[in-house]
Amino acid sequence: MKLKVYRYHEGMESPRYDTFEFEPYSGMTVLNALFQFQEQFDDSLAFRYSCRGAVCGTCAMLINKIPRLACRTQIKPLINGELKIFLSNYPAIEETVSWNPEDEVLVEPLPHLPVIKDLIVDMNTFFRDYLFVEPVFKPSDPTPEKERLMEPAAVKELELYTNCILCAACFGACPINGENPKYLGPAALAKLYRFHIDPRETKRKSRLKQANISNGWWACEFHGNCRLVCPKNVSPNTAIAKARAELTKIRKQDDK
């Protein structure tokens, strides 16, 4: 088995790929393989990781041309084709390097973000868009003595979006983010919609209108890649579609 890894650092004329041979064991993940690469081949390989349990989102990268979490992606199912996902095409997942998916694992940095070194990308753009939507709770009433009660149906709907771990896999899989760096992106818009539908929030309509701009709700083309790659099954395209429907309804009412 081979691990083919993207390598780059400041001062290089162009990136290169290093290949490392290893023997996968049962349950071995791509993150485990990267550790082996460091220990047995080149300890200068740079990548991010933290929890190793698919909770922090730190180790998102392009694995066999699909944005995934390295700590969650196991080698054997990946090679056997059990983890196949068919995405809408965009430049970042096109064949730019020769590799054999039957016996090689190709690991590259997450698309649409500047590479700092090897598999480490600069996340500033992603978090700039995230902060634009003001992802903080703004209660509609003073702090209660106990808790703010919610109907079970409202909790269930919120959970569709609160599970986001900010790994940016959806950002890396979005063709629009690749074409338009000003697009707020799936994660930020899903988070904004989460606060819009929270019944405990104040001025909920203003939340919706916050992304009522050309690079907000209306820039999405519904490729659906964001939903397919999300490790927590968040569906940003569903949130975007509902937001657009509500805004259209509001506009029609205002026109009357």
Secondary structure: helix percent: 25-40%
Number of strands: 7
Compute the average pLDDT: 93
Query: What's the CATH topology label of the largest domain?
Result: Fumarate Reductase Iron-sulfur Protein, Chain B, domain 2
State the low-pLDDT regions, or none: none
The CATH superfamily of the largest domain turns out to be Alpha-helical ferredoxin
Overall structural class, as computed from helix and strand content, comes to alpha+beta
Shape: elongated
CATH first level of the largest domain: Mainly Alpha
Number of structural domains? 2
Q: Label the CATH architecture of the largest domain.
A: Orthogonal Bundle
| Largest sheet features | 5 strands, mixed
Separation, N- and C-terminal Cα atoms = 65 Å
What is the CA-atom radius of gyration, in angstroms? 20 Å
What is the strand and helix layout of this fold?
Blueprint: E1 2-7, E2 16-21, H1 30-40, E3 60-63, E4 66-69, H2 75-79, E5 104-108, E6 115-117, E7 120-121, H3 124-132, H4 152-162, H5 169-173, H6 175-179, H7 186-196, H8 204-210, H9 225-229, H10 236-255
Helix pairs in contact: 3-7, 4-7, 7-8, 7-10
